[in-house]
Amino acid sequence: MKSYLPQSRAEKLEEILKTISGKFDVPLSFADTDNVVLFSAGPEGADCAGSQVGSGAVSVPVRFMDDIIGNLIAPSSSCGNLQIAAATAYCLEGFLKYETEIDDLSSEVVRVYEELSLLYSLSNKLGSELDVDTICRRVLEETSRFVPVQNTSIMLMDAKTGELRTGFATGRDAGCARDFRTDSATGFIGHVLRSGQPVTVCDIRTDDRIILPYPAVSILCVPLITDDRPIGLLLACDKLSGEEFWSRELKLMGLFASEVAASIRKAQLYEEIRELFISTVEALSSAIDAKDPYTYGHSRRVARFSVAICEELGMSKNKSRLVELASLLHDIGKIGTPESILHKPGALKPEEFEKMKEHPARGAEILSNIGEFGEIIKWIRHHHEWYDGRGYPDGIAAEEIPLEARIITIADAFDAMTSDRPYRKGMPPPEVMKVMDEYTSRQFDPNILNAFKQLVESGKIM
Length: 462
Hints:
This protein is α+β, with helices and mostly antiparallel strands. It folds into 3 domains: 7-102, GAF domain (Beta-Lactamase), CATH 3.30.450.40; 132-267, Beta-Lactamase (2-Layer Sandwich); 290-457, Hypothetical protein af1432. The protein contains 15 helices and 10 strands. It has helices spanning 7-24, 80-126, 132-146, 174-177, 187-195, 247-289, 298-312, 317-328, 339-342, 350-356, 359-367, 375-381, 403-418, 429-438, 446-457, and strands spanning 28-31, 37-41, 57-64, 67-75, 149-157, 163-171, 181-183, 199-201, 219-226, 229-239. A 6-stranded antiparallel sheet has the order 7-6-5-10-9-8. Strands 2-1-4-3 form a 4-stranded antiparallel sheet. Strand 5 and strand 6 (163-171) form a beta hairpin. The relative contact order is 0.06. The mean pLDDT is 84.
């Protein structure tokens, strides 16, 4: 009986019984299937709970979900009491039915709310993110929150080889998962990608099509598909609770898979466009460097050194990419510098040096019509400013000089001194660092120069 009637429902049934008993002035009781009275209403039955139903009583069964869960009891002293008992039993059955429907509806509302909350949370966390690694990390964090498991990973399609490779992994065996590659066309993985639907296997040890780089029992595979094309797969293995994956989890994972796939594909397209753009900029910088065969490759090296400094300083990947772009274009203003000055083997005359000093401002002017470059233009303009204010073109100092420009200044000077010139051979890095040390707090930001020295001493820059 207790399994059918939680305390809250028993109390409501008792209230209904009291209302009907008072209305018709008939004592009524509700007994379990063993005819033990659970609760009563009316003056004659108020203290009958726990007693056995007497023989001189009318009994009407009360059904719930096709089972008899108890009996409605009324005195047999009046023939009308049978009708009252039958009507009361019908009311109790109706109440239990509607209560169950309300519970089911409430559960559905909770389920839908959880689904919407997950999708909303994921959408917020992904937002306008355009870095694939960051997207994968956030997706796995959200997945682990909803379905706590031993291991989760996102595998991404390699368009050139047709393989799936792990893009990001978390959990107990994340180290083993990170280098995992598998064919996307055959076996269990191929089946999941072709089906386009989440698939779970309760015991992969019985399926020789499933090969993982770490031990596992149960697995949930969610294909990531966008524009009718698979771009990857989300894997979750072994729930921490030891339970199997539920159909509700499969459905929910399938719902947010499209959001994940769209975000990853958007980031991939952005990266492809960025790489195309960088290649175009590199070609332009090479054309600039080619004006002077002694500086060929200079811009690329400055970009490499600058990105290394950004990473050493803990700057974001997005900021590092912008610094890389500015470094590749930092000498674009030399387009307007006469080759006679660029190729001159000896020291420049004062008027020639003044002409050379025009290239940072000219470079900023050339790029000024590209609104998307924004701050990059300032970095290019100020990459020849000195920390003590004696640089050009504006003579600004210290923190007035953008941080990114101060980074390019150090990378630019290092490459200039280590490269061969018509009038001298390049100096070895240790010797260059001694010279740069002499100019710390004069030409160079001391904090950035210290970070750069660590890169040189560790062999990361040569």
